[in-house]
Design brief:
Layout lengths: L18 H15 L22 E2 H12 L3 H8 L4 E3 L9 E3 L4 E2 L4 E2 L7 H5 L20 H8 L4 E2 L1 H13 L1
Antiparallel strand pairs: 1-6, 2-3, 4-5
Helix pairs in contact: 1-5
Bound molecules: iron/sulfur cluster.
The site of iron/sulfur cluster (SF4) has 8 residues, from loops.
Length: about 170
């Protein structure tokens, strides 16, 4: 089953990407810079957790739109057109399924938008409440609960919900 292709490259800009968001991004990126990211090089141990339905900020949505607009269309369609529904691990015989994030590249087993992935994806595996699922990351930097608190101040919606907001704005 193919997923519907999202709005691509039409975000109207502005949004939350003002000074408050940019301050947040600087703090977030400094925290990410203190993470044991070398441990994650070439590892896809948390890739199975890339499930659909989490919220992202408008600025994050817009960053992805801009990124996708610069990707060759055939590459974009290759990933966005993949079937994202997969059997529930360990319960394959039951027919129970889950849905991957639309940006999970199921052919290459990685994140198609990695350079602009949202905050929760950057924290995954490197915070006390979202620990590395295979226990490879042993040290997590301080500050992620405070960062998450700051992030909570921004409106967050799923990719699909932002698509709807965008379509309504484009059609006005
Ligand atoms: S944006 Fe990338 S890292 Fe985040 S859930 Fe989707 S595929 Fe995974």
């Amino acid at each position: 089953m193919a997923v519907a292709l999202p709005v691509v490259g039409q975000a109207r800009g502005g949004g939350e990407a003002g000074p408050i968001w940019r301050d947040f991004e600087r703090t977030r990126d400094a925290l990410v810079g203190a993470m044991e990211m070398g441990t994650c090089d070439g590892c896809d141990g948390c890739g199975g957790r890339c499930t659909n339905g989490f919220g992202v900020s408008r600025a994050e949505y817009e960053a992805v739109q801009a990124y996708l607009a610069a990707v060759p269309p055939e590459e974009r369609e290759r990933v966005l057109g993949q079937d994202k529904v997969a059997p529930w691990p360990g319960a394959e015989e039951t027919g129970v399924t889950f849905t991957f994030c639309r940006y999970r590249d199921r052919e290459n087993d990685n994140c198609f938008i990695y350079p602009v992935r949202p905050t929760v994806c950057r924290l995954f595996g490197h915070t006390p409440w979202l620990p590395c699922p295979i226990g490879a990351v042993r040290r997590v930097p301080a500050g992620s609960p405070e960062l998450w608190g700051d992030y909570s101040a921004f409106e967050r919606r799923t990719w699909e919900a932002w698509d709807e907001v965008e379509k309504i704005a484009i059609n006005k």
